Amino acid sequence: MNPTHLVRRIRTLGRIAEPPPSRVPQVASGDGTLAPSEAVRSDRVTAAAHAFGGSVQIRHVDAGSCNGCEIEVGAAFGPVYDAERYGARLVASPRHADVVLVTGVVTHNMAEPLRRTVEATPEPRLVLAVGDCARDCGVFRAGFGVRGSVGDVVEVDLQVPGCPPEPGAIVAALREVTGR
Ligand code: SF4
After folding, report:
1. First-residue to last-residue Cα distance in the chain
2. Distance in Å, CA 68 to ligand 1 centroid
3. I need a labelling partner for 17 at 20 to 30 A (CA). Which of 75, 104, 107, 145 fits?
4. Tens digits of per-residue pLDDT, 87-99?
């Protein structure tokens, strides 16, 4: 695109981000009603959120997902839901991270990498299980390659239900951690 046209388009397009979701994580359940996401270890979430000071670096681990949750995580960090405006940022190394965001059931092959990724993340750290598979194995329960849910392998601090969760629910859970 011609640079002049690009600048004009940027100036005329205006704001496209969604309005902020509720500070309390809200997710749509099967019957369409809204329910809060679940803080599994709320004391740890509160203490870590205070230590993070409004900004968190996030390492994402796909432990065995169907990729549906990845699409929603991608949307949560895209221009419409824009999780970065609340101080949440994806990073490439657990050494740089405060939060490990896990999607999918944990397969046998991913159990040890997940455990080592969490161990490599400095304290204070939080583990966020995103999606029904991460919470309780979801539709893949009893699959031959499944080790278990994320909580069966590492300690989980916060869960976001849904198959897949909506981007707004993921952003709302991240805001719970950044406090913004
Ligand atoms: S919760 Fe649903 S969308 Fe997410 S990994 Fe499991 S089956 Fe896929």
Report:
1. 36
2. 5
3. 104
4. 999 999 999 999 9
Q: Of ligand 1's atoms, which has the minimum distance to the CA of residue 164?
A: 3
Choices 3.40.50.12280, 1.10.10.410, 3.30.1330.60, 3.40.50.1980: CATH for 19-178: 3.40.50.12280
Structure-token pair, residue 41: 């270890």
- pLDDT tens, residue by residue, 4-24: 888 888 888 877 777 776 665
Please give the number of the atom of ligand 1 that sits closest to the Cα of 104: 5
Ranges of beta strands (E only) in the chain are 26-28, 34-36, 38-39, 56-62, 88-90, 99-103, 106-107, 126-130, 146-148, 158-160
**Mutate which of 106, 132, 160 for ligand 1 pocket (most atoms within 8 A of beta carbon):** 132
Quote the pTM value: 0.85
Q: Where are the domains of the chain?
A: 19-178
User: What are the pLDDT digits (tens) for 63-111?
Assistant: 999 999 999 999 999 988 999 999 999 999 999 999 999 999 999 999 9
